[in-house]
Amino acid sequence: MTAEDTTPQLPLALNLRQRRDFASFVARGNEPLLASLQDRADGAEETLFLRGEAGSGRTHLLEATVNRVIDRGGRSCLLPAAELRTLTPAVLDGMEVHDLVALDDLDQLAGRQDWEEALFHCYNRCRAAGTAWLAAAKQGPRHLGLALPDLATRLASGGVYQVRALDEDGLLALLEQRADARGLALDPEVARYMVRRHERSPAALCQTMDWLDRQALARKRRLTLPFVKEVLQW
Question: By the 8 A CB rule, do 15 and 1 touch?
């Protein structure tokens, strides 16, 4: 969401932080979900709910969907609940003018009556206007602790997809892709060592790769296995 696409009620803090797309998402095990999200970005109006732990890639997928809508000339926005909760529910007024609305970390608003009611009415307005609706959280709608049963029902109405964790091969493919994007030469031995020793979170693994890249540049070193062991103190 660019500044000019921002509705008057939304602060610029809610703009997308990174340019994430579907091509940069390693989809192993998540191919059906990826296809469904691409359909919604290309004009399908159905609701879809993503569940997955933090770092699983669900935020990446929401941002990729929002970006695809914008790239084809549509209007779309991503609303992180962590920031929404610092505002008033009135920020959701007028969301139905978009082609697609995506809400992340929805569990952070569960149990707050004012927000649940606002989300319920926002959802109904969006569906009436033909606006596609995406939401994501750690758990599915019926396990979020929502006090408003009708909201849980609507959130689950279009299907709930689990963002499946990447296995070792998937994480290796992710590291290789990340290294290629940064112009790095990553030895397979180094990549496998990192995957086997690191927390198995795609987001955390990419952050470590980026940090290693900066360290290598600063020290004028290559990403060899001894260098990685030295820097990470493994």
Answer: yes
Residues with Cβ within 8 Å of 46's Cβ and at least 6 positions away in sequence, in order, are 40, 132, 158, 159
How far from chain centre, in Å, is Cα 221?
33
Q: From start to end of 5-123, where are the E strands?
A: 47-51, 76-80, 100-104
Torsion-angle region of 77 (φ positive above 0: left; ψ -120 to 50: alpha; else: beta): beta
Q: Are 173 and 179 in contact (CB under 8 A)?
A: no
Output the six-digit token pair for 7: 């509705």
Residue 193 CB contacts under 8 Å (≥ 6 apart), including other chains: 225, 228, 229
Please give the pLDDT value at position 18.
Answer: 53
What lies within 8 Å, CB to CB, of 133 at 6+ separation is 47, 48, 100, 101, 123, 126, 127, 158
Residue 22 dihedral angles phi and psi, to the nearest 5°:
-70, -30
Sheet containing 47-51, strands listed edge to edge, beginning at the edge strand earlier in sequence: 76-80, 100-104, 132-137, 47-51, 160-162
d(Cα 25, Cα 181) in Å, to the nearest integer?
A: 12
Instruction: Output the pTM of the full model.
Output: 0.79
Weakly modelled stretches of the chain, pLDDT under 50: 1-17
Assigned token pair, 85: 């909760």
Give me the pLDDT at residue 39, please.
85
Say what the pLDDT of residue 46 is: 78
What is the pLDDT, as a whole number, of residue 56? Answer: 83
